[in-house]
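Internal QA ticket QA-208
Title: Verify multi-chain structure generation after dependency bump
Assignee: T.L.

Test input:
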Amino acid sequence: MRKRTLCSLFIGALLFGACLSGCAYKDIDKRSFVIAVGVDASGDKKKPLRVTLKIAIPTSDIKSGENRFLLLTADGELVAEAIHRLSSMHENALDFSHTKLIFIGRSLAEEKPLREIMDWFYRMETIQGIALVALADPNANKVLKVNPPSERIPSNSLFTALDGSGTPSPYIAQSFLFDVVRRLYEPGLDPYLPIVRAKSEIGYQIDRIALFDKQKMRLTLNPEDSEWLNFLRGETSNVDFTSGKDKLYFQVDPNRAKAVLRVAQGEGGLWARFDLRLYGSIDERQKTGTSLSRVTKEIEAVVKEKTERLLGRLQKAEVDPIGIGLRYLSAYPGETSYRKYRRAYPTMPVEVNVQVTVYETGNVIR
Amino acid sequence: MQPRFIYYLLLVNLFANGIGYVPRILLESRHHGVFVAVALAWLVGWAITTASAMLFKRIPNTDMPSLWQSAFPKPLAGIIIVVFAAEWLIAGTLNLFLVAEISSKYLNIGTPGTDIILLFILLTLFAAHIETPKALFALELSLIISFPLVVLALLAALTQQGLLWESVFRLLREVRVPRWLDVSAASYVYAGYLNLAWFNRIVTSDYPIRWMSIATAGVGVLYMLFFALPIALLGSEAVALYHYPWINAANALRIEHAPLERAFYPVLIGYLNIAVLNTIVHWHVFLNFLRSLSPKQPTQRRASSEKGSIGERLRSAFGRHWPSGVLSAYAFLVVPGVFREWPMELIYQTSRLWFAQLIPAELFALGLGAWAVVRRDRSSGTKRRRRSTGA
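Actual output:
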């Protein structure tokens, strides 16, 4: 008796499952995987957005240089609308579950608030929270067209470059979708995006950072400042720089570099302090006159100057990608202290303490 | 059966609710002293667990329905049992709604939620009918399979780069008088122990009470972590954007050097498994609460059902199986309809109502239990004497 009930239940479940496969379920050969989405300004008043999808074409065996992909472009008033239009230009269902790159055209980011551009991306359940977001220069379409010969899977070179799993380059800032969204809303912490520049048909360069406040793009940093910002944010310690006077090249030991931020409220209002502790080696030195201790002092001065200049630029543009405000708010929470921080930020004093140890000079003593 | 099954009940409830409804309800009032609410709920949960552990030790191998029946007049006991059975039924159903919704939104994209909920109902109904010891064994087995996936979520989150602990501290320092709903909702993660209202029948209660206290305290620590992680991952403001904060937090998990870079799907499957288990446990308790209402003469009834006329056999079958009928009718007629017609927001509103009455209901059940023990002991003086001599 029991067995029979069990059996009938089981068969019932199977039959029910069979009914399910009717409308919603699609086989993998009826799906096309969108690996990158680009959003540009189209210049058209009525349909201001141009959406480009990069769709991977699967091949049976993966060979170097044989990455095949398809680019589809459509204009629309909204991102979702343009994508809806794009689905009629392709035979398969568009599947966004493998979308790992979101490119925003530079001119679009300059004229439209970032939150409005990103809305569709964080609203869609299928899109990964760990998709990489970047600014594309001159536009997303051009960058998506770049086809490096070393690539085996479409856009794979950009994934490895942008998510830090490949090149250790300190210029590249990682920014995942979830991070961009939280920075759009978090008081005292502002979004940033790496800028990917298409250099040619087969190459690109990622060495700049675009900084946003809660509304719009405010500032782009040059490579040197980008690197230093990445260091101050704690993302990379793999930094190096040249010190002009002695024509030397200082390489910081990534395992021992430290940047500690303190923010507090003193008698004169808010203040912040960066304590930088750098250990490093001199990789090249063209002028060898001065002693090592004096060179160390000079490097310290260079680091201090670099840091102060960068922080000054950030404060002037009123962007806070490092999270000085968040650090302050975590110590003094509340709405009034947020307003106080907003008022004080552009002019708040930031003290920079640098301590450099040159512990390695290669084969040569000095 | 050994008391280790209590830990599984605790853990299943913690994970199912620590990820399900509770985070969003708490995070909506994140600027109204939510960490105070979590801490208070810890105290409340600990107190209720310890008190009920003391109660269950007084009634070894007895479930709450039979305790109430032995101590109160029959109609009163019946009403009490039906009321608390409904509590368990609603708890399970709310969980099931969330499972179906999350599964259709994130896992089986494009499949209608009603189809998915029907499949889950089929599974849950079937599993709720298993005999109690087997249900506990199944619970143990499934939990052991799903548990690593939840641990993966915790490990992946804790090793993630760029966690905003400052955001957590920011909310932590906003000490305010918390809302009642938050305290009550946060205390739900400790309520797994109350499933013993039925399972105490077979789980031996020869464990020291301090074990239970320590276990609940441990659950509290785990829950603090569970609650803080979405804030650290999604930021103190953006975390309130989402319907399911923990699911979106899991979507942001990345393990760089793992075969699967995206930890989302393992974590999602782990959560769904555990939430379904939680529903099964709740519906099992519901079913057995109702069954305890039927008069108990199983041997005689079975004998009559084998012989008698068709009418008699039908009547006896109805007498034995009406709780299953009630549960099936509810599961197949009410649940899919509500799920289809109500938007998820309305279900959230309902869950709020349910959470608001949770602590009073728990205290009420405990009070009734304690009163029943006192009454029973007073009415049967001989029993009492026997126990005192035995001890």
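Spot checks passed. Chain B has 18 helices and no strands.
Status: verified.
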